[in-house]
Amino acid sequence: MILNKMFNWSDYLKLSQNWKDIDSSDPLSEAYYRSAISRAYYCVYHNVKEFVKNNGFIESPERKGDRHAEIIDYLNNNDRHWAGSHLDRLKKNRHTSDYKNNKQVNQRFVATSLMFAVNVINDINKKE
To answer: What mean pLDDT do residues 64-78 have?
Structure first.
């Protein structure tokens, strides 16, 4: 019998941290770096989404197509501006990684993105 185990979004961050360390001489290094940023973002997004739902966030039907920005706004308007700001910066880095093939993504860009990811996770996990 196969148990229906829920995926742990934080595994994406672990994977991203491994991909950040891929040597830049590897012919696929930039693909790893871009994927690391994208997966780190979705790790954080899903963890934050759960956090805000447990803290009174109610999705707005009017903003259905803009749920990511709505969650960032919620953080910014509910004494989590620091987390909201870092999530927004990580979202922009993910957009660059996923859509801007004319922008080079290197280890430094990945390291900065992962710093934002860890900062947001730490912020939502700290006790008030």
So the answer is: 90
